[in-house]
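Sugar phosphate transporter domain-containing protein
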Amino acid sequence: MMATNPECANLVTFLQFLCITAQGILTLKHNVFAPKIPLRQYFFLISLFFVTSVANNYVYALHVPSTLHMIIRSAASPTSMFVCWFVKNRVPKVNSILGSIIISCGVAIAMYGGAKVVEEEIKFLHWCAGVLILLATLITGAFTGLQQERLYSEYGKCPEEMLFYTHAIPLPMFSVVLPQMLTIAGSLSTSIWSILILNIFAQFYCAHSVHVLGTKETSVTVTFILTVRKFLSLLISSIVFKNSLTMYHVIGTVLVVVGTYLYFDFFSKKLQQPITYKNK
């Protein structure tokens, strides 16, 4: 949908935020006004989350090729690991680093093999700006996960509350692009609206699951699992839409399996946690 209608990215994000906010009000009820985590603690997290979401949308407006967009975003796992390494000053295990890098390479190769070639000229400055924005969102996304992890450790695990506030508080910011969104909403066809509604429901369950997962695993492991999910979604879509499976998919699958085994240290006979760190 983004490839054919890149201008509707902000509308999609707004409707996703609105749907999650409405569901949060129904779920939390009176607890909406008595959060476990102080509201002031949410502002840094919300700023990172909102900037990451909007920046990714803006890349579509720059008409950066979808293939490049997906390949760069597949590097989220090693980026999250290295940001965590830098911020917490703890060195991850070598097998975790290798697994994270290998799986990202596997996803990137599979995405490249499954992408359609779009013959569209793009201005070089737009291309550079888009790449820089995507690289920046990798870092802000990693810091978003770390901030979530910090809040959970300090104030307790409340995924429903965090899901609600991270989507409800940014809603007024969309007023800046409200006229544009109204114009786009009126121009969308019925088929696009059908896809959009399905996307909203899918995004709700995805966001909820990610927040629950964040209470059980580190931000680095969550990012790794999301990278695996991205790969599985690519394979499923290739089968459902009857796209041809190429040698790129085979190579990508092998790398994803090997990377997953390395990351979770399945080659070791000793049972270990998904992420362990050794002291410097």
